[in-house]
Structures are given as C-alpha cells and as structure tokens.
Design goal:
By secondary structure, the chain is of the alpha/beta class. It contains 11 helices and 10 strands.
C-alpha cells in the first residue's frame, strides 16, 4: 500500500522531521528513520503490564501504515505473534489461513461499513467453529450508537483512539488472557461470605443462566453476599433487569446483599424503570462494596 503525501507528512510531523525532509521527496529510508523516532517517543512502549503471550497470534487490520507499525511493535513487546491486513478482503484471507487469538480491527477501512462487515463475517466464522478469537475494535469514533452496534454484532471490546489507546488494548488483552477457554465470567471469593463476579457481556441467555446457577450454588455454600462488576458490560437489554431482580431475591432470602459495581448509565436507567434503583446498591469499586457490606453487618449485630 502506497502512503499518501498527507500520511507521510503526518509521520514526519510526529517524528519532528518535517523541517528536515520534504514529504513529496521522502524515500522509504526517510520514512523508516522517522518511524524509529516515533517508536522512541511513544509512551506505550513503557507501559507496565505483565502478560505471557506465548503461542498467541493476533491479526491487525488497518489501512494506515503508522497504526500497523505501532500495533506490530506493541504485540512484539508482549510476545504475541502478529499478522497484518490492510483491507477486509486481506483480513478474511488471513483468518481462513491462520489461527488467531485476537483480531484488532480498525473500524474505518476506510469506511465503517467495511469494518462492520468484517466483524459480522468474523463472528460468523467463530459460530462455525473455525476460530475462537476475541474481536477488539479500534476507532476514533465515540458515537454511542456505532459502539453499541459493534457489540451487538459480536465485538468483544471497543477501544477509542484516545491518548492511552495502546494501553487500553494491552489491558483488554491481559484481561482476556485471564479467562479460561469458554469461561463466561471471572469469580473470586472475598472474605468468608462474599463472592465477586466480573462479567463482560449480559446479552446472552447462556451467560446469565450460568451466572444465576453459579450464584445460587455460592449462596448454598455460605456466600450470601454477591458483588457483580458490570464495568465492561456495554450492551444491556432492558428486559434483562428481571435477572438482576432474581439475583437480588436470592441474596435477600439468604440474609445477604446484592451489589452492582460500576454499571453503565444505560443499566442504571433500566434499573430505575424496573423500580430496582433503590433496591440494589450501586458502588464504584470492590473496596467500597466491601465497606458497605461491613457497615450493614455492624448495623445488624
């Protein structure tokens, strides 16, 4: 893919080389040197995050060479083998040819219709059992409807190209690596009577059926207090508030508490509509949730 003068100019600007090199006469060697300078300047190479990427493959789909370069270097830093595709057609060919653990898809290729189409087809390949990758969408758009559409058609994550977008990608990959194959949520015992669940999706019957079943078993085993972290839940069907009500009843009937951590404004609105807003406490961290439960215990003792 040939770089346009505008793209070359941007690369030289980021590398502080624009005064030395004319974009119209820049050679491939000039661009390579500029990219190396950019690499030295980028903060994301210094992020402190532990990740074992052995035997992991990622496909980077972007039509901008600078983004491909940056993401390639980022994957190399954490030990993930990366492949690149510059169009929807190239990406589909790579998915069929290789096994991937992550697809990093720039939504605009250069049109968002291409990105949406690629996500849809990649999800269909997953359903056919040919691959089991996580799909991370990368975009400069903060349009809420577009973000929700990406999640609805099957994206696992959406990273906005903000100042820390490279770090956000790393954090998502790191979190995904903590999940075991086919694991629907992460759970952790806190103290002797509280259990914490972290979920990413709540728009799949399989997920909330497994969640309520596991919570019921936890309560029977002496964990009546349930915390659910919904910070990563981007898509929420208003009809699913009955699941939250069901979990609330399970905890109440066992003498425990049910708390939500960092639900989105959309989830809060759905709870208010279902008259759950005042019934289910909403906290902003695990620590504050633990303090809330501890205070309740003091009041009842």
């Amino acid at each position: 893919m040939e770089l346009t003068n505008e793209q070359i100019s941007k690369i030289l600007e980021l590398a502080d080389k624009k005064a030395e090199i004319n974009p119209e006469t820049a050679t491939s060697a000039d661009i390579s040197k500029a990219l190396i300078e950019i690499e030295k300047k980028m903060n994301f190479f210094d992020v402190d995050i532990s990740f074992a990427g052995a035997d992991k493959n990622a496909l980077i789909v972007d039509d901008l060479e600078l983004s491909l370069y940056q993401l390639n270097q980022l994957m190399k830093k954490i030990g993930i083998r990366s492949f690149v595709a510059r169009s929807k057609e190239e990406a589909k060919a790579e998915i069929i040819k290789h096994h991937f653990d992550f697809l990093l898809i720039d939504l605009f290729l250069p049109d968002c219709k291409d990105g949406i189409s690629l996500i849809t087809e990649a999800v269909e390949l997953k359903k056919q059992g040919k691959q089991d990758y996580k799909i991370i969408v990368i975009s400069g758009s903060e349009d809420k409807e577009l973000i929700e559409k990406c999640y609805q058609i099957g994206a696992d994550g959406y990273v906005i190209k903000s100042e820390n977008w490279h770090t956000d990608i790393l954090k998502y990959i790191n979190t995904s690596n903590e999940h075991k194959d086919n694991e629907l949520f992460i759970k952790k015992e806190i103290g002797t009577d509280t259990i914490h669940y972290s979920i990413r999706k709540f728009n799949d019957k399989k997920i909330y059926e497994a969640l309520t079943k596991d919570i019921n078993a936890a309560i029977i085993n002496g964990f009546p207090n349930v915390l659910i972290n919904m910070e990563k839940v981007a898509v929420f069907d208003n009809d699913n508030t009955y699941i939250l009500a069901e979990i609330y009843k399970l905890c109440q009937n066992s003498g425990g508490s049910f708390l939500l951590i960092n639900p989105s404004e959309k989830i809060k609105e759905a709870m208010a509509f279902a008259y759950l807003e005042g019934m289910i406490p909403v906290l902003n961290s695990i620590e504050s949730a633990k303090e809330y439960i501890a205070d309740l215990k003091k009041m009842t003792n």
